[in-house]
Structure formats: structure tokens, C-alpha cells
Amino acid sequence: MADVRGRLKTTVIGSFPLDYTEENMAKALTDQVQVGIDYPSPPQLLDMNLMFLEPLAKQGCGVEIRGEEAWLVGTPSPPQQPVATEDLVWSINYLRERGLLDKIDGFKVPITGPITLASVTKISQDTYAIMYEDVVMAFAEVVKKIVEFFREAGAALITIDEPTIPYALWLGLSEDTIIRVVNKALEGAGDAITSLHVCGDISGVGKLCLQINVDILSHEFRGTPKNLTEYTKSDLEKADKLIGLGCVLTKPIEVELPVESVEDIKSFIEKAADRFGAENLAIMPDCGFGSLKLYYKSQEEAQAVVRKKLENMCVAVRELRKKWGFPSD
Ligand SMILES: [Zn+2]
Q1: pLDDT at residue 1, rounded to an integer
Q2: CATH number, position 126
């Protein structure tokens, strides 16, 4: 974690508003590198659940895909072969061939967590795997193995995406189980930097997140500012964690999606720094940008908005590093 504390490092959540083509992969990756994201993500242009569940089904790991649905057909079992690492391998090669690999600190990869995968996997027409603690735990062993494959493929920052945690608590999954399951999944990360992304309203979830064995807690703060009150500086320091500060909107407010100005992003980061300590922040958008795909007339227009948001975010960060005397890269 020495790499990221007190550096105000930048990353993204992972999805972009583009169809899954090689041309679009190149576009979304190049945009991240050109604006100066420290830990870009291989552009996540596929469904965050099916992109893992489909290859797991192909390897006979206890799930089957019927239409667009995942069904449990046995106890989930860890894959023997890498799952969904192709885009990371492609992205590393793409930058290497262009001499751009040293422009970044490393690749961040988003991996859908066991609770979220279980929440979309059906056992019957109205029953999902998330309702069974032993099945969720089996998914944790599956994700641990996936994480290991990503680490071996060269991921430097590994994020477990678990937007379903608040729902899991509501369903009655215990805090202990959630902590155990996410910790298990993260065991595969080795010496990579680790993060947990839970978006939306995280009221009441902070205490649980602080107990998870992870370096960075990544949340939506810009769109849900009350999330700022979920942690204090001393909470973070006691638990040895950074906040992954979502600081630009990824969802329109009513009908508008403003592109935040550099000044505006700076003042939001400064406000968070007052609360959490500037040295305890990593900087990112609120969530992925994938849902903007249907919001603009064209994907090109949507991606142009995304690029501008990321560019302003990176400019704001460079100015604040200078102001706070942090290293400039
Ligand atoms: Zn999110």
C-alpha cells in the first residue's frame, strides 16, 4: 500500500458506454492513458456478471447459462483455466506495442464479487443462490481462483465489485458471512493492491467494510454525498485503509449529466480531504460509465463526455498534488 498512500492516485471503476469491439476497447483504453489515469482498467464492455459466469459455465463450474440467465446446476467449483483475463492480456499488449506501458502505474481490474454473482444465479424460478450461505461461500472460492488468475496475468490493483452488499444485508446474510466471503475472494490477490467497490447509498455498511481485509474502500460519493459521513479519518487510519473517492457523477441527475469543471472537482476532493485526510484518498469516478450507453444519441458522444470527465478529474488531481506537496506522478 506504500505505493498509493499520500499519492492521490487515480483509477476508474471499469465500464464504458461502448459495445464490445476491438476498436472500442482501443478507444476506451487510449482515452484513459491519454488523460493520465494512473491505474486504467481494461475497458469493461460486457455485462459484469455474465462475463464471469459464461466462462465458468463453459468450464463446468456448477453454473449453466440459459438464454441470458445463469442457473446453478451443482456446487460452484473453482475454475481450472483463467476466466475473463483476455481483455487484460489484450490491454497490456496494446500498450506495450505502442511503448505506452510505462505511462501507467499498472492495470486495475474489476472482478465481480461472490455475493453479486450469487445474487443473479438462479436455483429456481424465484430463488437465487444468494439465499444460501454455503453456496455464497462456494462462490467465494470460485472468485478467489479468478482473482489469482488475474494477478498472474499482471493486474496491479484488483477490485472486488459488490454492489449487492446492502441488499444481501437486507436479505439477512450476516455481517460475519459477508466479511468472510469477501476476504476469501481477496485471498487470491497476492501482493496486488486491493479494493472493494460498493456503490449507491452505503448507510450502515461502512462498519462492515472497515473489517474487510482490503486496501481501498471505493464508493459513490459525488452522487450520494451523505456517504461521506459513513467514515472518519480515525476509522480509516485504525483500519489502515484508503477511501476510493467517487468524485464525478456517472449517472444523470434527472435529465442532465453535467461535466464537472476542474475547479468543481478540486473543491469536492478538498472537502473529502478535510474529512478523511488528503493522504488517505485515491481518486475515481462514482461508478462505471456503462449505463450511459443508452442515454446519448451515439456511443461516440457518450464516450466523449466520459473522456472529458476523466480529463478534468486528472487535471484537478495534478493541481492538488502540487498544492499538497505530493509526488507529481
Ligand atoms: Zn458501482
Answers
A1: 58
A2: 3.20.20.210
Count of domains in the chain? 1
> Amino acid letter at 85?
T
Domain span holding position 279 = 22-324
Q: How far is the CA of 292 from the centre of ligand 1 (A)?
A: 13
The three grid cell numbers given for residue 102, joined into one nine-digit string: 510505462
Q: What is the 99 CA–ligand 1 centroid distance (Å)?
A: 31
Contact between 251 and 220 under an 8 Å Cβ cutoff? The reply is no
Distance 109 CA to ligand 1 centre (A): 13
Ligand 1 centre and the CA of 297: distance in Å? 23
Q: For the chain, what percent of residues have pLDDT higher than 70?
A: 99
pLDDT digits (tens, 9 = 90+) for 250-267: 998 777 888 999 999 999
How many angstroms does the Cα of residue 220 sit away from the middle of ligand 1? 7
Angle (CA) 48 50 52, round 5°: 80
pLDDT for res 173: 95
Ligand 1 mean position, distance from CA 46 (Å): 15
Q: Quick check: is 11 in a domain?
A: no
CA of 165 from ligand 1 middle (Å) equals: 12
- CB burial of 211-232 (b: ≥16 within 10 Å; e: otherwise) equals ebbbbbbbbbbbbbeebbebbe
